[in-house]
What we know:
By secondary structure, the chain is of the alpha/beta class. It has helices spanning about 10-15, 40-50, 65-75, 85-105, 150-155, 175-190, 215-225; strands at about 20, 55-60, 80-85, 110-115, 130-135, 195-205, 210, 215, 230-240, 260-265.
Amino acid sequence: MINKLNDLNPRTWLKFQKSWFIHNPPPRKKGVLVHPAKFPETMAQEFIEFFTKRGGTVLDPMAGTGSTLVAALRAGRHSYGIELNPKYAGIARKIIADERLALGASVEGLTSKVITGDALLVNDYKLPTLDYVLTSPPYWDMLHAKGSETQKKRRTSSDQDVFYSDDPNDLGNLHDYEEFLAKLVAIYAGLKPLIKEKAYLTVIVKNVKKGGKIYPLAWDLGRELGKVYTLKDEKLWLQDNQRLAPYGLGSAWVSNTFHHYCLQFRNE
């Protein structure tokens, strides 16, 4: 059998096909704690190695502090990232430079470039054809929710950001849900001309609780972006190392939400 998608053996391929997985990442380095929402390089590498072959090209249009690019380096892939916030883009470049130094000669021929800019303007950045897109968007404006325990902790820390930025183009600052969803879909749809035919786009996202109700961001994104790409499947990322909080105890149902949806779209 010729494996056209990746370099994995059948056993590793089969293991990845399970529709859910538990991933409790190692402790985050101090330099990246400043970012309010970062997904782990260890998890990103597993996705990159499944959806690309060695030497392929990966993009994260919302790069943050560079998790996707670090994972791509470790996997032997070229990578590009677009990040609106100059502060995070600078942190990402430093982290990537340190990673390249640690990996040495094995990554000398690999490109890993962070572009400070707006992902809506992706066509201005002269990117190469992409083999894969891996990204996670802001979870609407939930970082502005003052009642969040996580946000309370971040507000008392001098070296951790509460919000992504104060840029009006930052999706995390849009308070109208439908406007946020439309702009998010527009960003991902705008990547379509750059993505190879039959290549994949993975979006790591979760539904949002706000004002006593749930906004089905993952499901809405699947529906709307599924009009541009083919929504092929989902994987559930489960986190079983989080501390439970007594939300609504004795009066109402309020879940502790410790899962994310990893939505797999294909450019068909």
